[in-house]
Amino acid sequence: EVQLVESGGGWVQPGGSLRLSCVTSGFTFDDYAIGWFRRAPGKGTEREGVSCISSVNGGTYYEDSVKGRFTISTDNAKKTVYLQMNSLHHEHTDVYYCAAQFLYRCSEYSGSYYSGYTHWGQGTQVTVAS
After folding, report:
1. Cβ–Cβ contacts within 10 Å for residue 99, how many?
2. Which H or E run contains 71?
């Protein structure tokens, strides 16, 4: 059974940091890209890509607003993907999800699109507030 389990969310003050984790199981990690998403306002269940990392090509992608602020990384031995989130602002408050896409190659210009991901975690809440 494919599983993705997020953790690491919580409350943080503006300017603070959080590290989200996505522990995966049930699939060949090296054949997948893992993306981080947040809810897309006004778009129902659709989600907005924040970042992705691919074990297929070793590439990464960041949405423009998080470049230089968020860092995605993997621990292949643990089949875990991390999202280090620094200098957080109120607008980063959201539920963050990780998801897996078979054979997707993330790169600087690839984007990370909701419709391509087939397996999803349950989400972890990030709240940035004073």
Report:
1. 24
2. strand 70-75
Mean pLDDT of 50-71: 96
Whole-number Cα distances in Å, 41 to 5, 22, 117: 23, 23, 19
The confidence score (pLDDT) of residue 40 equals 76
> Strand 60-62 and strand 18-25: pairing?
unpaired
Per-residue confidence (pLDDT) for residue 105, from 0 to 100: 96
Exposed / middle / buried, residue 70 (Cβ in 10 Å: 0-12, 13-18, 19+) = buried
Q: Write down how long the chain is.
A: 130
String of b and e for 38-48 (b: at least 16 CB within 10 Å)? bbeeeeeeebb
Query: Residue 130 has which token pair?
Result: 């004073």
Structure tokens given for 111: 């984007």
Where do the H-state alpha helices sit in 1-118? none
Edge-to-edge strands, sheet with 80-85: 3-7, 18-25, 80-85, 70-75
